[in-house]
Specification:
Layout lengths: L7 H8 L3 E6 L1 H8 L5 H5 L9 E4 L5 E4 L5 E4 L7 H13 L13 E4 L2 E4 L5 H13 L11 E9 L5 H18 L13 E9 L5 H15 L4 E6 L4 H6 L14 H4 L8 E4 L26 E4 L68 H6 L12 H36 L7 H10 L22 H14 L3 H17 L3 H18 L9 H14 L3 H17 L3 H10 L6 H16 L6 H17 L3 H15 L5 H17 L3 H9 L10 H25 L15 E2 L5 E4 L13 E2 L8 H14 L14 E2 L10 E3 L4 E8 L6 E14 L10 E2 L5 H10 E3 L1 E7 L4 E10 L3 E15 L13 E9 L11 H5 L10 E5 L5 E6 L4 E3 L3 E10 L5 E8 L5 E2 L25 E3 L9 E3 L6 E2 L4 E9 L5 E13 L9 E12 L2 E9 L12 E10 L9 E14 L2 E5 L8 E4 L3 E10 L4 H5 L3 E8 L12 H16 L5 H9 L1 H4 L3 E15 L5 E14 L4 E2 L19 H5 L5 H4 L3 E6 ...
Parallel strand pairs: 1-4, 1-7, 7-8, 8-9, 16-25, 27-36, 48-57
Antiparallel strand pairs: 2-3, 5-6, 10-11, 12-17, 13-15, 13-17, 14-36, 17-22, 18-19, 18-21, 18-23, 20-22, 23-24, 23-25, 26-28, 28-34, 29-32, 29-33, 29-35, 30-34, 31-43, 35-36, 37-38, 37-46, 38-42, 39-41, 39-43, 39-44, 40-42, 44-45, 47-49, 49-53, 50-52, 50-55, 51-53, 54-57, 55-56
């Protein structure tokens, strides 16, 4: 329960205070009207005594009365009719609104995780409570509100004041005796009559007044008379003087009487076609399926005013029979009048002042209360009263209480007490006596709901006399005595089954006990009040007095901190008969829950929702809006999505009804969230409501601005923007189509890949003589949340800027966006102007929009359809036409949704509602995590990707790839044409090309270029001496190529065509080839020194030829000492293409030529016959053997030049020139690629070993490349026959090792153990590879192949054998030839026998003469060793039966056995039989 201005004790004293009636003569009223007041209003501010007074109870015990208040009532004033009473209650609530300003955080209270902004007080509830108690009609079961006294007021200017007093007294007596049910009700027949003579100090005669007063005292008694002097200031003086005296009367005057009646009020009625069934009563709900075009409002001539209310009655003024209803009948129109204007029928079982009686005339010869209010003058109150006059009024009230009222009360209590004591044992009534004699006593307790009060007491019944005694004791604050009296009376009423009287006695007994004791000493009798309220509701059907009991009881419970019990009592009084009362009580119950010791926040919110619903039904839309807003604080952000949606929807509806379109828009906006759990149809309805309300709001704002929109568009909640996923692409963006292999395009999503940065660094270094500038910063074309956005993107005049946004539809319904465009602000850089004007396209004026479009051409997308719960990328394009600073601030669009839920209906202007708005685009930089402060807090770096700097026009390169293939065979060479066009406005130069795979393309570096579209040149087309290709083998082939330009520049709008050749990858599959073109403007720019153009080619490579080659040292038996080394090359060529349906395949491959590229080696065909034609079909394999000879006559090598000699073996009629472009180019690029692969990071030991033993390693190294030139017959997918040419490279690096045309990598199966320390032995003892040390010397045998011998003449055949030893290294070696040891025995290998199967042990021959021979060889030196072999039997022998040991280091005595596995066969023939 909210805080009140009064304490519980003060409220109860003010509610139950002695009532005094006032009857004035017309002349007395005239004197009071000088102050714009009636007599009752005149004395009302002074009705509370400021001093203590004393009273004695019937037992003569004195009691102290503190702050005694007297309630003054005009005797002629009647209680309003039921309809008017309901209207007064409704109006007093509607006119009282919270005083807290919007946005104030002064009363925010924290309850756990909830921060609630609560109203500290509820003045509307207090106003309702005061008005309810004021219009509550009196009942016969109690006398608390009955008048104890009647004051007769006559002015001293009356012609016969004494007669006037007698007339007024007789009128009062007549009303009391003849019309006992009319207002006011009287406490008893012998009420106190008090006579007041009102004297005007300025206009009256003091002597006459004194004489009349003396006469009054003699006639009516001195204790019952008083002479009151007023109006000590004349009207003329009061009008001329200006005083700022306080006005004590304003707070007591009824606003409706003092202000509302002084002007004519027009009643407003509302069209409620939009009101849903849940806001109207069940029987009179008005539902309109059509969505209204606007909210209409009309006026009628009805005198009533106020918001629309439901047809349920607010309050019934019947004291006994419950609340009545006012039926408005069936609704036949979209509008209805205020329900309070309908007449209601009172169903009182007794005469009530609410029932009109035509025979009673309350005016008593002067104007009625309403008439007096209507004739009241405008001005201040009490203008003729001085301070002395106010003091006299205080004295008058004090004398009235002390000298008259309190003594009268003491006398009445004694009389009532004596009557009660004397008649205590007598039966009270015929019914009670009969019941007591024949029925016996009934048990006390609750009564059945269907029982009614059937006991009717006479006015002087002892039970009512006891009730009078208790009431008068309570009114004069004798609470203990009153409690005892009520407690005794309730037993009698309970025995008589007089339930209305019983409930009243229980109620007052509870209140008396509360008011009498200390809260710590006495427990509040909660069960008394609970039983009283239940009896009022169920037995008596009297919700009015149940409401009064609840209002009083809850104040007492609140003061005792019993909030839970108070909340239960409030909730108990809620019913369907009065929505306004139920709303107020539910709201107070909610406040009780929040004020508990352990606040129940969710119960508070739930009951605020119930209260808001009842407020809405009662027409209190502002209070309904406030209640729902209070509850939203609890449900908001707590994942109560459906409850939050209900609250926001209701807030939107109520705000719309109150014409608060901004609040309605904000409420409906919260319904369109990502976490909404509503079904799609409901979300679509929410969206339509939002668009409809927002459109009305915008229309209102436009009309308020005189038909001109403001410069800012409204922000819309949907669709949402994924801000950090925004991409900004600077420059032209080539389209990339991955569905077409071979298409040249550019995927901007990969523009930030490290490969592009590496290519750019290579190009910049090449352009700056191999040095990368320190100020170099990688060029970023696509700015994302993963790029370095500390610097502003640079765009150029005339070049587009593409912005890719991700639109997220959080709803499950389709969103339609039309006329979507980017919003930007532009600050032009105008020379000589200090502060240029900021230009933006966020305007509606067509002139400004056209002007902005000329500066920055902005793309407009006509329509974007976003499916439900989708995240879609959308690209926008801007083209700046002026230099300056461009900032992209968001997007603007028309948001629309279909009015129907049928998705098959296409949205059209006829069935859609749309609103134009915007979404702001704000990106967040990366979180900083460098310093300690940044790590301990959330600090984000700058992100300037949306802040572009527009520079002047630059040259712009456009590249076209002509005749570019969609697919290639592995190794296929294809001729293309590159066309370069400068589409900019200034010239460019230094055009260069870099590729991620330099072996893929060449522009031609060697010899005369073949004519496009030819690929290879024949020997007939080039000079015969072109057999050499000079190149720098010390440096790798650079992947940067210069593109020749005419006059070294490319002028604007000029085009240059450059031929190029591409070669398919050696591995089949789809490959991406990335090109980066580099160029510089001729006119230097400080911000942009170079520009780049990126392209990506997607090539589908088909398998064709696979080549495997191995080289062996030749057996040089017949070489002389001057002969050079040679080796045999074995090539295995396989057509690995497969025949597949609907796929291209290679039908056959014809090998046209095999070329060898080396600086020392040349090849030749082994066979002396004509060279055959080599054709390899699908899945066929062909073996080819060639001989390679090492030549020592390469003068270029002797002179230090790096050159490559090409030797060719042609298998066709036309020999291809392999030393020219493109054959030599691709050979060099493949060799460079192979070198880069071989230079991959290896172990440190292997690198050191290779460096230290380079002279030894050359023993097995060859350094030749076989180039296989072929022509393929390809069957395409559509069956067409195509002829393609190409080349494969096999780089043979060393002997006795297989090399292939395709790269392969050996993946280790096991990882070596991780070492954290270096091995000292490995670092100290670095040795060459065993593969090298076992082949340092080339070993050959020179002897006769067949030796005839006569074994009969000589048992031993002696054959001379010459051992040829050649040093294959570039270092001196020491050789030891041992004929006593066989290499088989030394190496534990099985014997290698070349004998017939029948002959056994024919390998046993003997070397004679010297068994150990030691010699040394210089680099590349060849020496012979003469030996003799003895054979004892004829046969075929292998003379390779000796061991050759070599040492390359004189410091190391260790000698290594040389490997010479090739046999040297000799045949010993026996010629003795011949």
């Amino acid at each position: 329960m909210a805080q009140c201005k009064q304490t519980a004790q003060e409220f109860i004293q003010n509610t139950f205070s002695p009532a005094v009636a006032v009857l004035c003569s017309p002349d007395a009223e005239v004197l009071c009207q000088k102050n714009n007041l009636t007599f009752v209003e005149l004395v009302q501010p002074f009705c509370r005594l400021t001093t203590e007074v004393h009273i004695r109870d019937p037992n003569n015990v004195p009691h102290t009365i503190k702050n005694l208040k007297i309630t003054m009532r005009d005797m002629n004033m009647q209680l309003p009719q039921a309809v008017m009473a309901r209207k007064m209650l409704n109006d007093v609530v509607a006119s009282t609104q919270p005083q807290l300003g919007e946005g104030s955080r002064g009363n925010v209270v924290t309850f756990g995780s909830y921060d609630l902004q609560l109203s500290a007080s509820t003045p509307w509830f207090e106003a309702y409570r005061d008005m309810f108690l004021k219009v509550l009609p009196p009942s016969d079961h109690e006398f608390l509100s009955h008048c104890l006294c009647c004051i007769f007021v006559v002015s001293s200017g009356h012609s016969d004041p004494i007669n006037a007093f007698n007339t007024l007294s007789s009128n009062q007596y007549q009303q009391q005796t003849q019309y006992p049910t009319k207002m006011p009700r009287w406490f008893c027949p012998g009420i106190l009559k008090y006579y007041v003579l009102l004297h005007d100090v300025v206009e009256g005669e003091d002597a006459k007044a004194d004489a009349v007063y003396q006469s009054m005292k003699s006639s009516f008694g001195g204790q019952n008379c008083h002479l009151l002097h007023i109006n000590s200031r004349s009207l003329h003086t009061a009008e001329t003087m200006h005083t700022d005296l306080p006005d004590p009367w304003s707070q007591f005057l009824n606003k409706n009487n003092s202000e509302a009646n002084s002007k004519k009020r027009n009643k407003a009625r509302y069209f409620i076609a939009w009101e849903g069934a849940e806001y109207d009563s069940a029987s009179n709900s008005v539902v309109d399926d059509a969505f209204p075009s606007k909210l209409s409002e009309g006026t009628t001539d009805s005198p009533l005013s106020g918001p629309i209310m439901s047809n349920s009655s607010l309050v019934d003024m019947s004291p006994d029979s419950g609340e009545g209803t006012a039926s408005s009948g069936s609704l036949t129109s979209e509008t209805f009048d205020h329900p309070l204007s309908e007449p209601s029928q009172d169903l009182n079982h007794v005469d009530s002042p609410l029932s009109p009686d035509k025979t009673y005339e309350p005016e008593l010869n002067h104007t009625s209360f309403k008439g007096k209010l209507g004739d009241r003058k405008q001005g201040g109150h009490g203008i003729c009263l001085t301070t002395s006059d106010q003091d006299r009024i205080k004295i008058f009230m004090h004398e009235l209480c002390v000298r008259a009222l309190i003594p009268w009360a003491e006398r009445q209590m004694k009389i009532l007490n004596e009557q009660h004591a004397s008649r205590k044992g007598i039966s009270k009534s015929l019914f009670s006596a009969t019941k007591r004699w024949f029925g016996g006593n009934k048990p006390t307790g609750q009564v059945a709901a269907n029982q009614n009060t059937t006991v009717v007491y006479s006015s002087d019944a002892p039970e009512l006399q006891m009730r009078r005694l208790g009431d008068i004791a309570f009114l004069f604050q004798m609470y203990d005595f009153a409690y005892n009296t009520y407690h005794a009376a309730k037993r009698d009423f309970n025995n008589d089954h007089a339930w209305l009287h019983y409930a009243g006695a229980l109620e007052m007994a509870c209140i008396s006990l509360f008011m009498s004791g200390n809260p710590r000493e006495q427990k509040y009798p909660f069960h008394y009040m609970e039983s009283a309220i239940t009896t009022y509701l169920q037995s008596c059907k009297n919700p009015l007095y149940a409401t009064r009991a609840t209002l009083v009881s809850t104040e007492a419970l609140k003061s005792r901190k019993m909030y839970n019990e108070a909340a239960l009592q409030f909730i108990k009084l809620t019913s369907e008969d009065s929505d306004l009362r139920s709303a107020l009580l539910l709201e107070q119950a909610a406040h009780c829950y929040i004020n508990m010791e352990i606040p129940k926040v969710r119960k508070y919110a739930f009951h605020m929702i119930l209260s808001g619903h009842r407020y809405s039904k009662s027409g209190q839309r502002k209070h309904a809006l406030r209640s729902y807003s209070q509850a939203l604080q609890v449900y908001k952000g707590k994942n109560w999505s459906l409850a939050e949606d209900h609250i926001n929807f209701t807030l939107g509806r109520q705000s719309l009804n109150l014409k608060q379109l901004d609040n309605a828009t904000a409420a409906f906006k919260h319904l369109l969230t990502e976490n909404s759990k509503q079904i799609p149809s409901q979300q679509n309805a929410f969206l339509r409501e939002y668009l409809f309300v927002y459109k009305q709001l915008l229309s209102l704002e436009m009309s308020s601005y005189g038909g001109v929109h403001s410069n800012t568009l409204p922000e819309l909640p949907i669709p949402m923007l994924d801000n950090n996923a925004t991409k900004v692409i600077v420059g032209h963006k080539p389209q990339h189509n991955q569905d077409k292999p071979g298409h040249i395009g550019y995927d901007y999503t990969e523009s930030n890949h490290p490969r592009w940065q590496a290519l750019e660094e290579a190009l910049v270094s090449f352009a700056n003589n191999g040095i990368l500038p320190v100020t170099h910063r990688p060029t970023i074309q696509c700015f994302t949340n993963k790029t370095d956005n500390r610097f502003n993107p640079v765009a150029y005049v005339g070049e587009p800027v593409t912005v890719e946004l991700y639109l997220v539809n959080p709803l499950k319904v389709v969103l339609v966006l039309t006329e979507v465009t980017l919003l930007w602000s532009f600050l032009p850089s105008i020379p000589g102007q200090d502060k240029p004007q900021l230009i933006t396209n966020e305007v509606f004026s067509s002139v400004k929009n056209t002007l902005a479009n000329e500066i920055i051409h902005t793309q407009v997308i006509d329509e974007i359809v976003l499916p439900g719960s989708e995240r879609s990328p959308v690209q926008f394009t801007l083209t700046p036409h002026q230099t300056g600073e461009l900032r992209i601030v968001g997007i603007c669009y028309n948001l629309s949704s279909s009015l129907t839920d049928d998705r098959n209906i296409k949205p059209s202007p006829a069935n859609t509602v749309y609103v134009r708005g915007k979404q702001r685009l704000d990106v967040q930089g990366p979180r900083l995590n460098n310093t300690k402060e940044e790590k301990s807090s959330k600090v984000y770096g700058p992100d300037r990707r949306l802040d572009l700097v527009i520079q002047p026009e630059m040259p712009q390169l456009q590249v076209s790839f002509c005749n570019f293939p969609k697919s290639l065979l592995c190794g296929e060479v294809h001729a293309v044409m590159l066309q370069f066009t400068n589409i900019g406005t200034s010239p460019l130069h230094k055009l260069k090309l870099a590729s991620s795979t330099p072996e893929f393309i060449t522009l031609g570096d060697h010899g005369e270029l073949p004519k496009f579209p030819c690929v290879y040149q024949t020997k007939n087309e080039v000079p015969s001496e072109e057999t050499k290709c000079y190149c720098n083998t010390k440096d790798k082939v650079c992947n940067v190529m210069d593109i020749p330009l005419p006059n070294r520049t490319l002028q604007p709008k000029s085009t240059v065509s450059v031929p190029a050749w591409v070669r398919g990858n050696d591995i089949g599959g789809v490959h991406d080839v990335h090109f980066m073109f580099y160029y510089e403007p001729v006119t230097k720019s400080p911000r942009a020194r170079h520009r780049l153009q990126r392209h990506t080619a997607v090539i589908n490579t088909l398998e064709s030829l696979s080549v495997r080659s191995v080289a062996h040292r030749a057996n040089s038996v017949h070489q002389s000492s001057s002969s050079q080394a040679s080796c045999i090359l074995s090539c295995e060529m396989e057509n690995i293409s497969q025949v597949q349906a609907n796929r291209a395949y290679v039908k056959e491959i014809q090998v046209n030529q095999v070329s060898c590229a080396s600086d020392l080696w040349s090849i030749q065909y082994l066979s002396s016959q004509d060279k055959p034609e080599i054709i390899i079909g699908c899945r066929e394999t062909m073996h080819l053997c060639l001989k390679a000879t090492k030549s020592a006559n390469n003068l270029d090598s002797m002179l230090g030049k790096e050159s490559v000699i090409f030797s060719d073996v042609s298998f066709s009629d036309q020999q291809i020139s392999s030393a020219t472009t493109p054959c030599a180019d691709f050979f060099l690029r493949s060799r460079s690629q192979s070198d880069s692969e071989s230079s991959a990071p290896t172990e440190t030991v292997s690198k050191s070993r290779e460096k230290d033993f380079r002279d030894l390693n050359c023993a097995i190294q060859l350094g030749m490349t076989l180039i296989i030139l072929w022509k393929a017959c390809v069957i395409s997918e559509d069956g067409e026959l195509q002829i393609k040419v190409g080349q494969h490279h096999v780089i043979i690096k060393k002997i006795d090792t297989i090399f292939t045309s395709y790269p392969f990598f050996i993946i280790p199966t096991e990882k070596p153990p991780i070492r954290f320390t270096r091995s000292r032995d490995e670092q100290e003892n670095i040795r060459p590879e065993s593969e090298v040390t076992t082949q340092l010397v080339d070993i050959n045998f020179n002897h006769q192949a067949q030796v005839p011998h006569n074994f009969q003449n000589n048992r031993i055949a002696i054959v001379p054998v010459t051992l040829l030893l050649r040093n294959c290294t570039k270092a001196s070696v020491e050789i030891l030839v041992d004929t006593s040891k066989s290499p088989d025995r030394l190496n534990n290998r099985p014997e290698e026998k070349y004998v017939v199967p029948e002959v056994q042990h024919l390998t046993s021959f003997s070397w004679v003469s010297q068994t150990l021979t030691k010699l040394s060889l210089d680099p590349s030196q060849q020496r012979t060793v003469h030996m003799t072999a003895c054979f004892s039997k004829p046969g075929i022998y292998n003379v390779n039966r000796l061991a050759v040991f070599v040492t390359h280091n004189k410091d190391t005595p260790e000698m290594v056995l040389q490997r010479h596995a090739a046999p040297s066969v000799i045949v010993i023939q026996d010629v003795s039989s011949e």
